[in-house]
Amino acid sequence: MVDNYNENYHTPVVHPVLGSILDESYRIEPKGKYLSHVGDASPGIEGGFQVEGANFPQLLTWWLWPNLCPMSIPGGGFRVLHIMPDGPERTRETYDFYLPYAEPTEAQWRQIRFAAEVVNVEDVSVAEGIQRGLHSKSFDRSYVMIAPENAEWSEHAVSHLKNLVLEALYGQS
Hints:
Elements: H1 2-5, H2 11-14, H3 16-21, E1 27-31, E2 34-40, E3 45-46, E4 49-50, E5 58-64, E6 68-72, E7 78-85, E8 91-98, H4 106-134, H5 156-170
Antiparallel strand pairs: 1-2, 2-5, 3-4, 5-6, 6-7, 7-8
């Protein structure tokens, strides 16, 4: 799940609604113990994200080592994703939503439902498919695509995270 979150080439295919509001400015940048995700959002209402007239016309998220992801999303609202290992091949995710009002507006409820019922379901489906592929007889190894200048097709952030894992486990990257 963490690898999937920290590359963007899957977004247009796996998350067509989310992909439709992000433009070519979207970038993932490794910065020490965190990764920043920044991108401008196109105007309009798509899925759960109300972008037109929003106070935050950018998608701003961060991946904080090792497993915490605060997200500010166009249209208002802030959520925190916490991904925790739950066994050798299982992951447990929790979302906490932080809103400026005691009761969410209909637009904020739409955003919460969209995150839970659309984007998360799309990601889980991909992660489960990858796990099945890792157990197939034809899988031998995988390669990481590094091309930060073409951020939409690069796994440079995934490589950065893998180096943080090596450093945590062995004191080296």
